[in-house]
């Protein structure tokens, strides 16, 4: 793939995003505000998933291993 096709593909994706989210009908300052809020929400979801999902997986693993009778050598 050459660089021009990649650029066209990303511009097509951005156009699709604007059409689907109705950003195309907003004024430029409204688009900036909407994109900032959306990016902030996505960043918070990714951060929360990065921090809390491993903890929940470990706790679920300990819970189900105790129920099923599997004992880890590192468990107290």
Automatic annotation (TrEMBL):
Q: How does it sit in the membrane?
A: Multi-pass membrane protein
What Gene Ontology terms describe what this protein does at the molecular function level? serine C-palmitoyltransferase activity
Key words of the record: Endoplasmic reticulum, Lipid metabolism, Membrane, Sphingolipid metabolism, Transferase, Transmembrane, Transmembrane helix
Q: Describe which pathway this protein belongs to, using the record's wording.
A: Sphingolipid metabolism; Lipid metabolism; sphingolipid metabolism
Q: Which domain of life is it from?
A: Eukaryota
Q: Where are the transmembrane segments?
A: 35-57
| Annotated function | Component of the serine palmitoyltransferase multisubunit enzyme (SPT) that catalyzes the initial and rate-limiting step in sphingolipid biosynthesis by condensing L-serine and activated acyl-CoA (most commonly palmitoyl-CoA) to form long-chain bases. The SPT complex is composed of SPTLC1, SPTLC2 or SPTLC3 and SPTSSA or SPTSSB. Within this complex, the heterodimer consisting of SPTLC1 and SPTLC2/SPTLC3 forms the catalytic core. Within the SPT complex, SPTSSB stimulates the catalytic activity and plays a role in substrate specificity.
UniProt protein name: Serine palmitoyltransferase small subunit B
* Organism phylogeny: Eukaryota, Metazoa, Chordata, Craniata, Vertebrata
**Which gene does this sequence derive from?**
SPTSSB
């Amino acid at each position: 793939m050459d660089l021009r096709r990649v650029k066209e593909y990303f511009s097509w994706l951005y156009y699709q995003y604007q059409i689907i989210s109705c950003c195309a009908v907003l004024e430029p300052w409204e688009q900036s505000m909407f994109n900032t809020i959306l990016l902030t929400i996505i960043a918070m979801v990714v951060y929360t998933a990065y921090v809390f999902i491993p903890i929940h997986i470990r706790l679920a693993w300990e819970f189900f291993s105790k129920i099923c009778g599997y004992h880890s050598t590192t468990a107290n």
